[in-house]
Amino acid sequence: MTSDNVDRLKKLERDWKTMIMISHDFFHNWRQAVYEKYGEEAMEELTLRFWELVGGNTAAQYARAKIDGRDVERVARAAARSSEIMGETVRVEPDGDAWLLLHDDCPWIDSYRRAGFEGKCRPGCHRWFESAVKGLSPDLGVDTLACLADGDKQCVRRFYKKSP
């Protein structure tokens, strides 16, 4: 790889990381506007709806990418890739017939704190995972078992096939 290509890649990486933070600021400013106009309850309700819609769109993207909604591991790995793209540090591990998605670091924790809503990311994050999984396959489920925002050492989500 030439030094020009290396420099371009470094610039693209910097730009992407900046874009991630811009999207967080955009999201939190939207939440703040809803909070100021309608109060905290409406803000939290609309935030969940926002993440539900994003999850539905994610499911549609996974379907277009031919992610098999019957393959629990593949769905967990697709969610991990989505998380990595957004700057999160994740890994996927087997858990019997299920798969665990483990977040060791996540920029949402800090952006929620900076926005004055420390520890409030768990419900929206769970709604995104839940909506994405449900939209791809009603036969799969996801549970949030631990959360960095709750003081846990990582976020843990368990992807599994629902019992018939």
CATH topology: Muramoyl-pentapeptide Carboxypeptidase, domain 2
Q: What is the 3D form?
A: globular
**N-C termini distance:** 52 Å
Note the run of SSEs as H and E.
HHHEEHHEE
Q: Report the uncertain regions.
A: none
Structural class: alpha+beta
Please, could you describe this protein's structure?
The chain has 164 residues and is of the alpha+beta class. Helices cover 60% and strands 18% of the residues. The chain has one domain: Trafficking protein particle complex subunit 3 (Muramoyl-pentapeptide Carboxypeptidase, domain 2). The chain has a 4-stranded antiparallel beta sheet, with helices on one face. A hairpin with an 8-residue loop joins strand 3 and strand 4 (155-161). The chain is globular. The termini are far apart.
Summarize the structure.
By secondary structure, the chain is of the alpha+beta class.
SSE layout:
Layout: H1 3-38, H2 40-64, H3 72-85, E1 89-95, E2 98-105, H4 107-114, H5 122-136, E3 140-146, E4 155-161
Antiparallel strand pairs: 1-2, 2-4, 3-4
List keywords for this structure.
60% helix, 5 helices, Muramoyl-pentapeptide Carboxypeptidase, domain 2, 4 strands, 4-stranded antiparallel sheet, 164 residues, alpha+beta
